[in-house]
Specification:
Length: about 130
């Protein structure tokens, strides 16, 4: 009597992925809550490296979300794009990097400042 080999088994144990093989993973559906207000941007610098965001990472930015205390945002200040943690402090706005070589910025009332959206996810490559 011969046994038919179960291709879902490896080393005698069932594959943990067996129950999920039939379903397609749609990253848009998983990562994007509001497609009409969401866009991707590539991180240009290491100003947020201690927050796990590296130069070259792909950021998913949602324009429909309002920034909350300590949200990571894509903003413009005096015409320059920045990715920073936003802090609201007694009616003032501070933009805080996550790298000691980059200065914290206090947004002055007369500044040309706007938030473009809240960074919701970071896609980070693990290899070269």
């Amino acid at each position: 009597m011969s046994k038919k080999r179960d291709s879902s088994r490896s080393s005698g144990f069932p594959s943990p992925a067996r129950d999920y093989l039939e379903h397609d993973l749609d990253l848009n559906g998983y990562l994007i809550r509001n497609p009409a207000a969401t866009f991707f941007v590539r991180m240009a610098e290491d100003s947020m490296i201690q927050a796990g965001i590296h130069a070259g990472d792909l950021l998913i930015v949602d324009r429909s979300r309002d920034p909350k205390q300590a949200s990571v945002v894509l903003a413009t200040l005096q015409g320059e794009f920045l990715v920073r943690k936003i802090l609201f402090d007694r009616g003032r706005i501070r933009l805080c990097p996550a790298h000691p070589d980059f200065p914290e910025t206090l947004v002055r009332p007369e500044s040309d400042f706007s938030t473009w959206g809240v960074v919701t996810y970071v896609i980070h490559a693990l290899g070269p």
